[in-house]
Amino acid sequence: MRWLVENHIKDIDPEWVWDEGSGGLKDVIGKGTMFAVAVAEKQIYRFKLIAQGEPGHGSMPHAASANTRLIAALQRIIEAPRPLKTGPASAAMFAGLAHTQKFPASFLLGHLAHPLVLRLAGKKLAAQKLTNAVLRDTVSVNIIQAGYQVNVIPERAEAQLDCRLLPETDAGEFRQWLVSRIADDHIRIEMIQTSPPSGLAPIDNPFYQALTSAIHKYAPGAGVFPLLMAGATDGRYWRERGYPAYGFTPMLLEASDIGRVHGIDERISADNLLLGIKMARDILQTLCA
Fold it and tell me: pLDDT tens across 218-251, in order?
């Protein structure tokens, strides 16, 4: 998709872009059914930390080893989580979810853009993986490699980190924070992949309205809310260039289904397949009428 956008954007020039990224959830966000429509996503910021240290025999450990340096730096990064922040995308998302909760949670979610409200609700929101991920820059240490024999202190150790930055985060500021947390001249940063901030697709246009109409037709009583994606999709290539891209998979998942996503038993029901066909047909008919 990146290649298509970079080389054929004028040939395609879409009015709207329909991508993956979300769907319906039943009894997952409180009681009832809610459909999420992805309108923005976080920035990708992936890198390696490469530590150099003094090699030696495992019987004589020392503080200047590559492993010790790397572990200490990772600990300094992990123990200082980035601050919670609310931007336009996350504020709209939580405002759309507010009515699913009872007071005072409904009031707090509806006014999360206010710093005082975010401070009051922040601890509980940070305790959940999804809500934590859409309210702060996240750092995940996913690969650690070092050593080649159990009795040898290696001269090099490496870690690969997957960070996802909020749309409002300045990547330069994040790097400065990262360097300050590493605080070791024997560790260098090697970038793997980055992406620029994703734009925000509007919710007051015909595409979003067509999705909403189809949802209300086939899932009466269901709510609809705009979603800030914690992960990445191809929609970002379009939003970066000002095109309204939406992530929406027309299916309805329950809590038991979510645990199978990207697992060895990933599947959807025949009912979900039929639901998706009907909703996709209606959405296309509405947009092409």
Answer: 999 999 999 999 999 999 999 999 999 999 999 9
pLDDT digits (tens, 9 = 90+) for 43-57: 999 999 999 999 999
CA distances (Å), origin 212, targets 6, 81, 97, 265, 271: 31, 36, 15, 30, 20
Tokens of 283: 């959405």
- Given a cut of 90, whether residue 31 has pLDDT beyond it is no
Q: Is 250 in contact with 280 (CB distance < 8 Å)?
A: yes
CA gap 97, 125 in Å, rounded: 13
Domains and CATH numbers, the chain: 2-41+198-288 (3.40.630.10), 44-194 (3.30.70.360)
- Contact indicator for 53, 66 with CB cutoff of 8 Å: yes
d(CA 200, CA 28): 25
- Token code pair at residue 198: 């994703």
User: Of all helices (H) and strands (E), which one includes residue 117?
Assistant: helix 115-126
Which residue type occupies 139?
V
Peptide bond into 83 cis (omega under 30): no
The two tokens of residue 188 are: 């260098």
How many whole angstroms from its chain centre is CA 99? Answer: 23
Alpha-carbon gap, residue 18 to 37, rounded angstroms: 10
pLDDT of 21 higher than 90: no
What does the alpha-carbon distance between residue 40 and residue 133 come to, in Å, rounded to a whole number? Answer: 13
Amino acid at 190: E
Q: Are strands 223-229 and 33-41 parallel, antiparallel or unpaired?
A: parallel
